[in-house]
Amino acid sequence: MTAKKDADEARVAAERRHFESAGAHDPLPEICRYRTRRYVQPRVNEVFGTLTQADFYTRPILEKAASGRQVTVLSLGSGNGELELGLASDLLRGGTDRFHIEGLELSTVNVEAANANARAQGLEGKVSFFEGDFNTLTADRERDFVIANQVLHHVSALENLFDALAHILGKDGILLTRDMIGRNGHLAWPECRELIDRVWSEIPRRYRYSHRENRFLDEPPDRDYSRNSFEGIRAQDILPLMLERFSFARFYAFGGITEKILNRALGPNFSVDNEDDLAFVNNLELLNDTAINGGLIKPTVMLAHVAVEPRTLTCWRERTPERCVRMPG
Hints:
The chain contains nine helices and ten strands. By secondary structure, it is an alpha/beta fold. The chain has one domain.
């Protein structure tokens, strides 16, 4: 028990160091944004009725605010507050000031910085940040929305968190989430790794240079990020546990092969101005799509609007949450 406690404390310390560092919020390479614009966003727009990436969060909040009542939002793992402050500005531009956003963040440094940014931007009455650990979240009161933007895969106590969220959301609340749902530690499942290895064996050497390790790689990057941190600690449990406890209103899932080649380490090797690079990315995405649609692999990233009470599901084609689950073994 002591060894586990020590390991968890070390993970917490590593988590704080990482998200307080300057590199924690480095933007993705332009080739990743190209892939999102061309392949991911059009399907998200279709499923969620959005026009832009920001609409994923703003649209349902604006719709709720249109009723004339104050809308309450809890954002988990708010970091430096960039998303929450941007959301507040978007909502004000969208014509409503009937909202308040609370950001829950583990790091004291980030909480102080986020509140300072809120004051500097004149948003302190609309957005506030406080320190806390979502692993031990308790249901203090109901909210209209909970935002979980790339944070669920950092949670070890998923059952406790989901139980608390069920109370916080109540009958009418909605969880707005984008997250990783692949194998723990963001490792590739064996069937997916087989396809990745085939791709890797055929790609030019210039695509194999890691800009994080400053060297050419012999194998595609596929390390277990959860060994010394909470990164992907229980990623594979997120979707099954959510299916047990919640009802999906809107859902889209993708990924598996592509992100092992297009990421912060290898992505800078590709140029959006190079036709050969774009052709490679297009073919890679086609392979990924075909493998998911054919049932060969399961997707690793989801976007979802989730409720406690039963909802009618809107998803992309036949990619229901149930069909996207990959159980161990």
